[in-house]
Amino acid sequence: MLSAAVNSLKHAVPRCAVSSRLKHTLPDLPYDYNALEPTISADIMQLHHSKHHATYVNNLNVAEEKLAEARATGDVSTEIALGSALIFNGGGHINHSIFWQNLSPNGGGEPTGELMSAIQRDFGSFENMKKTLSASTVAVQGSGWGWLGYNKAAGKLQIATCANQDPLEATKGLVPMFGIDVWEHAYYLQYKNVRPDYVNAIWNVANWADITERFNKARQ
Ligand SMILES: [Fe+2]
Coiled-coil region(s) at which residues (predicted)? Predict the structure, then answer.
């Protein structure tokens, strides 16, 4: 699972050259911090992006630096011990990089075209997909994510949940389409303990253009 997670990172997130090593960087949001109001407050967006996501990026870079040192000295024990830090922080970086793109101030409504047809084929109706994903996501115990993903082998859309920051593709084999972050840092300042209200509201800013692009790419 570790090598799969590291491979996902290579493809999923932007990197830039710093000295002789490649470091991950915090991607800019494609909109202002207050752009998703009233669904998600500016306070939440600012903390979530500039503090929480930034911490995953920083800690991922630290873990990768330690991994490189361990590899250079043939320290396999340390390489193995770094596995959980790579999954947690690498997953946090992958998940949030997708999440920002999955949302839009111009979002909401329903998808069209082949994505809508696939949703109707695999879930019966758009409303049923929405209801099932919302219920699964609300039911995540503790911190985690709910996902609409694409199963390439089966050629169909599926719903899955992941604990903590486990990345969907590396741990469940599904290509991420739409993720709902249900860590308390994603909603508590605004929705307090009422996670269902946050999950129901997030559909108002779901970026179907981005989700459709991921769906089309996954099927290539
Ligand atoms: Fe988050």
Answer: none
